[in-house]
Specification:
Layout: E1 2-3, E2 11-13, H1 15-27, E3 36-43, E4 49-56, E5 64-68, E6 71-75, H2 77-83, E7 86-93, E8 96-102, E9 108-109, E10 115-117
Parallel strand pairs: 2-7, 3-6
Antiparallel strand pairs: 1-5, 3-4, 4-10, 5-6, 7-8, 9-10
């Protein structure tokens, strides 16, 4: 795992999450050397805050930029304080497949795990 910023990694990404995200990025026709996965926090959800993810062509000014298993991850400065120290994983099981954020900063999560409170 290498970091492309001088800061510590805001988020750790598991190999399975990176592999899945890279597959999806390639499927969208995006250049994985420049584009990346943006992880952000927004108001909403039953617990107050929720995670958001999308693919971006390139980072924005002020982003924390890290690389994990070949995947570039972008986190904006306002979201970083909520997700710092988190692990992003990809789970594929009986209840469905998807990305999951394990966040040590969350004091509580809603029952579905989609929103949290700090």
């Amino acid at each position: 795992m290498s970091s492309t910023s001088a800061e510590s990694d805001a988020v750790v990404v598991t190999e399975s999450a990176a592999d899945k995200a890279l597959d999806l990025l390639s499927g969208e026709g995006l250049d994985t050397d420049v584009a990346g996965l943006r992880l952000f926090v927004q108001q909403g959800g039953c617990a107050g805050l929720s995670y958001g993810m999308r693919f971006d062509d390139e980072p924005e000014d002020g982003d924390s930029i890290t690389e994990h298993h070949g995947l570039r991850v972008f986190v904006d400065s306002s979201s970083k304080r909520y997700v710092e120290g988190s692990t992003l994983d990809f789970e594929d099981g009986l209840q469905g497949a998807g990305f999951h954020v394990e966040n040590p900063n969350a004091e509580s999560e809603c029952g579905c795990g989609e929103s949290f409170r700090t």
